[in-house]
Write a structure and sequence with these properties.
6-stranded parallel beta sheet; 14 strands; 437 residues; 14% strand; 16 helices; Rossmann fold; 42% helix; 3 domains; N-(1-d-carboxylethyl)-l-norvaline Dehydrogenase, domain 2; alpha/beta
């Protein structure tokens, strides 16, 4: 079976590579020539555990290839996945120009029946626009080729995407014909052997499922952050509250950790897009608007604690930052709380020395020379007036407090992810600040 994946970003690259792992012949298409050259050498543009070795293995087996040429690689494909970016517009809506452009290219070059699947996160009714764009190009050619469109949203978590794809919680597919369903069943059959559910539905429902899932997870995070802020006011401990409510199976223990707010490429963008979709239909998603507002406010909480501790005098203070990526096991800096905290500190005249195990190069793209970059976690603690933990990488979880005591000018730790035991930290003579504790 041969398929094409158009777009070799995070979703497209993981999707194509994992399909090739099952024996499917996969061609990844992208307009970025340098990226394609690197991919064909096994050099990948993102950090994702296990992905690089899998790409190299399937390149060597000849099951995975990359090209900038759609026209010459579309022949004999049974399915084409559209996995290009859908960045948010100024009004919060998803920008579909790249999706529609790809759809038109498919209409120009296809020469046999295809299932065209939107893998990108797209608003409801996007598949109709994709279908219309393909049909318009076929009509221009005078071609009477048949095709189907489908929606197959991704539910990958950055940092565990390979496992998520190979062992999915569920596979959601929106289809409109039995022929398309048959092809999709064949394609996903290797992933169903362990009983993972394959859920077929209509296309609008599949498109909505993606946005609803991410928005629900974002809601859980903002809810816990809101409760955490109240915990501080009433003298409760959010960690105890989390364990108390997380034991209820109706609530569960996932995504109920208080912290410095959510970031990344999905939650902020998808919440905005769903709010905009509702607005287009004259409906107000009041809960999601609150979720977004709480998250925006939460990114200021750590800075506010720092500012209060130093009584508003931050000029020439030096802060060590542990963790820059929006979460562990990724180098993704998009919408990362670290950027908000760092920018606020810099605006007040503070100096920053930062360390992240993986995201240093990405941080330099986002922050440039505004900050100093440390070689390791302890270099980021030398002569600092305060240590700020923002991303809960494993290597930060059990620091040597004796070493920190010798390195730091002022023994104060701002724990933006509640990974430290406050009593233990204080036993070593540090002042401790957490979230909701």
């Amino acid at each position: 079976m041969k398929i094409a994946i158009i777009g070799t970003g995070y979703v497209g690259l993981v999707t194509g590579t994992c399909f090739s792992e099952t024996g499917v012949e996969v061609i990844g298409i992208d307009i970025d020539k340098k990226k394609i050259e690197n991919l064909n050498k096994g050099i990948i543009p993102i950090f994702e555990p296990g992905l690089e070795s899998m790409v190299k293995r399937n390149l060597e087996k000849g099951r995975l290839k990359f090209s900038t040429d759609l026209k010459d690689n579309i022949t004999d494909c049974e399915a084409i996945f559209i996995a290009v970016g859908t960045p948010p517009g100024e009004d919060g809506s998803a920008d579909l120009q790249y999706v529609i452009r790809v759809a038109r290219d498919i209409g120009r070059f296809m020469n046999n029946y295809l299932v065209v699947i939107t893998k990108s996160t797209v608003p409801i009714e996007t598949s109709k626009k994709v279908k219309n764009a393909i049909r318009e190009e076929l009509d221009k050619r005078g071609a009477s080729l048949n095709f189907d469109v489908a929606s197959n949203p991704e539910f990958l978590k950055e940092g565990s995407a390979i496992n998520d794809f190979l062992k999915p919680d569920r596979i959601v597919i929106g289809i409109e014909s039995e022929k398309a369903e048959k092809i999709m069943k064949r394609l996903y059959k290797p992933f169903l052997l362990n009983g993972h559910p394959l859920i077929f539905m209509d296309i609008p429902s599949a498109e909505m499922t993606k946005y609803a899932a991410n928005s629900m997870l974002a809601t859980k995070i903002s809810f816990m952050n809101d409760i955490a802020n109240l915990c501080e006011l009433v003298g409760a401990d959010i960690d105890s509250v989390r364990r108390g409510i997380g034991s209820d199976p109706r609530i569960g223990d996932k995504f109920i950790y208080a912290g410095a707010g959510y970031g990344g490429s999905c939650f902020p963008k998808d919440v905005k897009a769903l709010i905009k979709t509702a607005s287009d239909y004259n409906y107000s998603l009041s809960i999601l608007k609150a979720v977004e507002q709480v998250n925006n406010n939460q990114k200021n909480v750590v800075f506010d604690k720092i500012n209060k501790h130093f009584k508003g005098v931050l000029k020439n203070k030096i802060f060590g930052i542990w963790g820059l990526a929006f979460k562990p096991n990724t180098d993704d800096m998009r919408e990362a709380p670290s950027t908000v905290i760092i920018e606020k500190l810099i605006q007040q005249g503070a100096k920053i020395i930062a360390y992240d195990p993986v995201a240093m190069n990405e941080a330099k793209r986002h922050l440039g020379e505004k900050i100093t970059y440390a070689k390791d976690m302890y270099e980021a603690a030398i002569d600092i007036d305060g240590l700020v933990l923002i991303t809960e990488w494993n290597e930060f979880r059990v620091p040597n407090y004796k070493i920190l005591s010798k390195l730091m000018n002022t023994k104060v730790i701002f724990d933006g992810r509640n990974i430290y035991d406050p009593e233990e930290v204080r036993e070593y003579g540090f002042t401790y600040y957490g979230i909701g504790r």
